[in-house]
Each structure stands twice: as C-alpha cells, then as structure tokens.
Amino acid sequence: MKHKGHLISFIWIFLLISSCNKISHIEKDKLTKKTFYFMEIGRKDISEVQFPDYWNIQAYNDIEAPPITKEAHYFEEKLNDLDYFDSVKGRLIKTKIYNNLLTKKNQKIDSLFVLDSISNKDITFVYIKSYKTENGNYEIPPTFQDIDLLIFSKSKFKEKVNIYSYLNYPYAVGMRLGYLNNQGDLYVKEFETDEEKTTFVKEEHIQISEDGNVKLVSSVKKPKIKNLEEIIENTKYSIDWKGHYTITTKAISRYDNLEIDLLYSITVKSNDTAILSIGADSVQDYGCEGSFKLTNENDILHAKGGKCDPVYEFDFFLKKENGKYYIKSKQFLNPDWQILNKDL
Question: What is the pLDDT of residues 219-237, one digit of tens each?
C-alpha cells in the first residue's frame, strides 16, 4: 500500500509537469507568432482629400474655351499631386509568368516590375507595376499603367486586386488612385477626364485579409456635388506632413564666409510643429536648430522659430507639389525651391 501511494504521487507530479510544459509551449507559440503586415503603397491622403462631382479643365490651348477657374485649377493640381505612380520603384523582370494574369484582350506588356513579394503561411502577395499598350487600329495606341496585387494560395493564382491604374485613350483618360495600408485596407478614388472636365466617378473601400480573401466594404458612385470653396477650405490641412525630411545643399558659412555643404534634417511631428537639426562643422552654422512653429499660408507651410536672432532669417518654407516635397530658406545659397527628400 505504501508503494501504491508513492506511485499515485508520482503520476500526479508527472501530469502536473506535462500540463505546465504544454501551457508553456502554448504561451511561447503566442509570443513567437509574428504579426503580418501588408506593404503600404500609395498616399494616405487619397482617403482623406475631398473632391467635388466634377470640375472644368482646358485639355488643349483652346482660345475659345472659358478660362479655368481658381477652384478647378486647385482640384486639378490636387489630383496630380496625389498621383504617385512614377515614385514607386521596383525590380524589372523579363519573364512572362505574370503576363496572362495582368492583360486583357488585345493588350501587350511593355514592361513589368516586381515591387515586393510577401507571404503569410501558404498565401503569397506579389506587388506588380506594369506598362501596357493596346493593339488595334489606332493612330496613337492607348496605354495603361497599373499597380496590381496578385494573390496566390499554395502557389496557385487566387485573385488580382488593382491598386492603381491610368488609362490613356485618345481624348480621354481614366485614373484609379488607391492607398493600401499595412492592415490590408484599400481606399480608392476613380476619375475620368475628357476634353472639357474631370469627373469624380467612384469611391471604394476594399478589405484584403492576411488569408488572401478580398471583400468590398463600400462603393459609392457619383458623389454629391459640394460647394467648391467649402471643399477647398476643408482640404487645406488634409496633407499629412508627419515624417522625416532631409536636404543637403550649398550655403555660406556664418563662421568664415566660405561655401559649405549644409544638411537640414527636419522632423515634422504634426502640421503645427517641426524640429530642425542642422549638419555643419561650425557651431555658428548649426546653432539655430530647434523647434519651429508651422503655419499654413496658401498650402505652403511657413516654419517660424529657432534659437537665433534675427529669427526671421532662419525661417524656412515647405510645400508639396506633383507628389514631391520642396523647401526654401534664406540660409541656402540657392534662393529657389529645392527638392526635399522624405524618408519612407
């Protein structure tokens, strides 16, 4: 009976240890499981900027056409500014493994670029940038620029999701601007442009899961016409400037009046505040770094502040135009707008 009691005790201890080890492995698996993120592509403000139903344009230099209004010019510039296609870079591929998945009837691939390829278990997501031409009896053949997300399950093609497209037909253009965040939310706005006007056609929200499933959350056609001036007022601050920017440019040293390379490193914490760090050899040249207050002046950010007197000489200006960032400062040898690099 004494041995039997020892045996029962041993079994209980063994079961307790096994149970603890099992729980330990479960907790370890939870900790080691990686969170899946999509590659972010596009501009976040695509989902935030408001557009009217349509606005008139001048596609050609037609002297008889009415002049384009200030409001129409504003929205055409805003649309061009959101177009990010040229800024997206990838690796050129010459194989034809994706051609049939990316073309429609009478289309041919001119060039393909792989932007990225990411996997989650058996699901693979391939980001492709493509240039295409339509064959046919055209004096000027239509051209197509696309960014697509190809989804594969166990190496078998499952679905294609279009993120960006630009359809250039004679006398007409179609544009689909999409922003895909790292959670798989795709926000899309579609436009059509003819010889007279640009029309805001449709707005969509699409959800892509990490399992490769695609769901249309919402689709709104023909947005309600709104007052252009009101939309402009609401849109002025819609550009999210948060991020880190740099430029290295020529300047005259305040130490010895010689020409130097001056590094401006700007961290924009909000649309109201920026921190400037300056790279230079002399304290006279980098001593004016610090916090700057940002004010919006007709879509140009005016940075005021710093630690030096007179303060206004160290003000700098930021703007975003046609998808690029620019800076201007009296401290630079070149007084004109210069391209500012934004970290991705």
Answer: 988 655 555 555 555 555 4
For residues 125 and 172, the answer to whether their CB atoms sit within 8 Å is no
| Alpha carbon distance 319, 336 (integer Å) | 12
Which of 294, 297, 292, 299 lies closest to 264 in space, CA to CA?
292
- Give helix 228-235 / helix 70-82 axis angle, nearest 10°: 40
- pTM score above 0.90: no
Query: In sequence order, which residues have a C-beta less than 8 Å from that of residue 57 and are 6 or more positions away?
Result: 68, 72, 76, 193, 196, 197, 198
Listed in order, strand segments (DSSP E) in the chain are: 54-56, 91-93, 107-120, 123-134, 143-153, 156-169, 172-180, 185-193, 197-208, 214-221, 243-252, 259-268, 273-279, 290-297, 300-305, 316-321, 324-329, 338-342
Tell which wins on pLDDT, 32 or 166: 166
- Are 248 and 74 contacting, i.e. CB atoms less than 8 angstroms apart? no
- How far apart CA 135 and CA 278 sit, in angstroms, is 54
Kindly provide the b/e burial profile for residues 38-70, where b requires at least 16 CB atoms within 10 angstroms of the residue's own CB: beebbbebbbebebbebbbbbeeeeeeeeeeee
Question: Could you give the CA distance from residue 144 to residue 153 in angstroms, rounded to a whole number?
Answer: 27
Pairing type for strands 185-193 and 172-180 reads antiparallel
Structure tokens at 313: 């000489």
CA dihedral 116, 46, 299, 331 (to 10 degrees): -10
For residue 8, report the phi and psi dihedrals to the nearest 5 degrees. -65, -40
Structure tokens that stand for 306 in this block: 């710093």
User: 171 pLDDT exceeds 90?
Assistant: no
Residue 146: band (very low, low, confident or very high) from pLDDT cuts 50, 70, 90: very high
| DSSP 8-state class, residue 194 | -
313: amino acid identity, one letter: E
Spatial CB neighbours of 54, under 8 Å, sequence gap ≥ 6: 197, 198, 199, 200
Instruction: Report the 10 Å Cβ neighbour count for 292.
Output: 22
CA-based angle 295:325:163, to the nearest 5? 115
